[in-house]
Amino acid sequence: MTVLQVNEMAKSKFDNRNEWLFSGVAAEIRPEDRIVLLGGSGQGKSTLLRILSLLEPFDKGDLHLDGQTSAECKPQSWRKKVTYVAQKPVMRSGTVAHNLRTVSELHNKPFEEELARSYMEAVGLGQMDWDKQASDLSGGEQQRLALVRSLLLHPELLLLDEITSSLDPASKRAVEKLLMDWAAGQANGLERAYLWITHDLDQARLISNQVWFMAEGRLLEKSATEVFFENPATEQAGLFIRSLQETRGEKQ
Ligand SMILES: Nc1ncnc2c1ncn2[C@@H]1O[C@H](COP(=O)(O)OP(=O)(O)OP(=O)(O)O)[C@@H](O)[C@H]1O
Questions:
Q1: ipTM of this predicted complex?
Q2: What value does the mean pLDDT take over residues 35-46?
């Protein structure tokens, strides 16, 4: 059972080491958690996700995965369990097939072509020509290919950074469904979880059973999704929800 624990974590600002980008972050991610991370732009949400997958260092606090500290665990083994999917994916040079296979090769595992095809189908890329150059794909296609690459690693915890931001509504729904089904399944007999950054309120309500809300350099709220939206504990969260609702109203 994979449990990620964050204790009193802080990250200093790179332009002023005496100020925190965020501090006092304490939280836990347990199997079957489906968490959305909400907050205004520039709060450090992406930075937090990168820290949790050991892609960036932190300045204070500690991080435990199944009882082991981040210092005791090799980053590569950590990332096999805790996988970050970026908003702007980096494609490897070469074809779609090469991008899909490389992940398995890097982890000395056989390439699971059937599974790759089923994930590609599920995200709406079932018809894609695997001989196409990955660099020629659209932003939305690259986002979905990157997600499939990550799923092929059989992670137990996915850290998802606005991964549907370039998708049309139908593709977005397909990705949401795939990931909710994925979270309800198991990896190597172990339950799965995700922590997902989004700015889309409808998506947040649909995909999560918990909300983490970042504001003023803190993880200000951690609540059940319904509670967060119906009865936010802080004024900041209430204002944040209203501002997103107003923006949505203006767009409609
Ligand atoms: N040490 C630091 N590490 C990362 N970002 C930092 C740091 N110090 C200051 N910053 C600034 O803080 C912001 C953090 O960006 P980040 O992408 O993590 O926030 P975010 O909450 O995910 O924003 P968005 O919702 O716009 O994607 C950026 O503007 C960055 O320039």
A1: 0.96
A2: 96
